[in-house]
Amino acid sequence: MAKPLNGSGRSMPRSNEGMRLIFSAVVGVMLGYLFGISFPTVNITKLHFPSSIISYIEDRNSGITTQTLLNHAWASANNHKKNSSESNTDEIPEIYVPTNPKGAERLPPGIVVSETDLYPRRLWGDPSEDLTSEPRYLVTFTVGIGQKANIDAAVRKFSDKFTIMLFHYDGRTTEWDEFEWSKRAIHVSARKQTKWWYAKRFLHPDVVARYDYIFIWDEDLGVEHFNAEKYIELVRKHGLEISQPGLQPDRGLTWQMTKRRGDQEVHKFVEIMATVFSRNAWRCVWHMIQNDLVHGWGLDFALRKCVEVRARCRKEWGIFQTRLADAEKAYYLERGITPPNSTSV
Description:
Layout: H1 12-38, H2 51-57, H3 66-88, E1 137-143, H4 148-155, E2 162-168, E3 186-189, H5 195-202, E4 213-217, H6 228-238, E5 242-243, E6 274-278, H7 279-288, H8 299-302, H9 305-334
Parallel strand pairs: 1-2, 1-4, 2-3
Antiparallel strand pairs: 4-6, 5-6
Helix pairs in contact: 1-3
C-alpha cells in the first residue's frame, strides 16, 4: 500500500527522522558545552551515559552518534577557551603598588601626594604662580582675645619666612582682622581646647612637612628680647632637634633651668610652654601625644625619647664601622697578609 505524502511531497517518517537528528545535535552540543565548562580537564571520550539516554538521542540510520557530537562540542569549547586566554593576555593589568601609602595601593606612584603644606592658594589663575614665597618655619599660638596685644607683639618678631597659625579656644576670630598680619595668618577655631589638642589634630607631620622648624607656643610669653632669625641660627649651629628660647628670669613662675643666662647660648632643659621642634623630631613627638591627655602634663620629660634614639643610631653606626674594620684586619693578619689602610662601608 502506498504511503500518504505530505504537502511537500516527502513522507512523514523521513520528516520525523530529520527532527530527531536536529534534536540529537542540539542536545549533544548543549551537553558538550556544559561538561566542557564543568570539567575542563576531563577526557570526553571516557564519559559513558546510560543506554536509555543514548538510545533516545542516537540516530541509528545516519550513523552519527551522540558520542561523536559530544566530541565535536568538546573541541569547540577548547578552541573557545584558547581564544579567550589569548585575548586575556592583551588586557592591561590592574595597578597595585604595595609601597604606596596605605589605601593608595591602586594609584600609580606618580600621582600620589602623601604630604601637603599650609600655604594659602588663590582661587584663580595659574596654580604655579600662586606662591610668591614658601616659608620654612611654622609658628603656632593657642589664643584668646584677651591676649590680643601680647600676640600682636609676638607675631611682629617673625618675618615673612614664618607662617603664623592661631588656634582660637574662645571662638572669636574676626576681632583679629585689625592686624594686617592676621589676614595672612591661618586661623583655626574650636572652643575650649588646649594647644596639644590642636597640635594633635591639625599639625600632622605630613601636613607640616614643608617646615624645617615648628614653634608651638603659649599665648602669654614675653618676647621683648627675642630675635627669631638669631634663634634659628643658634638652633642650626648646635643641631638642636627640640629646643626653646631662654625665658626672662623675672617673669612669672619659671623653672630655674629654663631661665635665660647671659653667659651661655644653650641649656639642656625644655618645657612645653615655648617648644620648638625640628621636622624630624616633631614626627616622633606627634605620635607620642595622646588623644585624651590634652594638657600635656609630663610631656616635656618624655621629649628626650624623640632625640636620644637618633643619637643612639649614630653611635651604633660608629661602633659597627669600628668592629667591621677590626674584623677585616684580624682576618688579614691571621693569614700573614698586610691589611689595607682603610675599610670602605
